[in-house]
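Inverse folding, one chain.
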């Protein structure tokens, strides 16, 4: 989660390999899966390919969005609607008609686009994903828990029936 320009700079720094950032090389398997012969070869090219994303979920982040979007190396802003709603409205999830929430979301999208950044949104179902895809570059459908719940309900109904 990013709320300030300092937070955004730290995310970029921790996401990139030296000399740009401070990310560790870790396992050698990344280089092999990306077609490089050695970890050093992978690290030499990886900074050009790494997508750096920051979650925007606080009132401070909305207030500081222009400065956050100016951070070089930050590629995408991901709106976490529940946490943003909690920060702005005091409850989550948002109902979707609260002007303060909608205004904040529009501000994030417009500012990101102005600075050439991608912007994404987390949604709860296919209908919301379809609508969000008209505005956002990335739509994350968080249906894993709901899918498991539906499966368990169906299986329990079979077991009980």
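Residues assigned per position:
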């Amino acid at each position: 989660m990013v709320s300030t320009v300092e937070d955004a700079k730290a995310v970029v720094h921790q996401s990139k390999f030296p000399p740009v950032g401070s990310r560790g090389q870790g396992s050698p398997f990344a280089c092999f899966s990306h077609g490089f012969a050695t970890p050093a070869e992978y690290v030499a090219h990886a900074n050009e390919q790494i997508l750096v994303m920051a979650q925007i979920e606080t009132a401070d982040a909305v207030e500081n969005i222009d400065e956050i979007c100016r951070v070089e190396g930050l590629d995408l802003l991901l709106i976490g609607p529940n946490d943003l709603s909690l920060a702005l409205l005091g409850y989550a999830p948002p109902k979707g008609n609260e002007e303060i929430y909608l205004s904040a979301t529009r501000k994030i999208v417009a500012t990101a686009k102005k600075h050439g950044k991608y912007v994404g949104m987390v949604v709860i179902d296919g209908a919301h994903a379809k609508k969000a895809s008209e505005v956002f570059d990335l739509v994350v459908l968080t249906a894993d828990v709901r899918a498991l719940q539906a499966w368990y309900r169906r299986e329990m109904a079979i077991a009980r029936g």
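The mean pLDDT is 93. The chain has nine helices and four strands.
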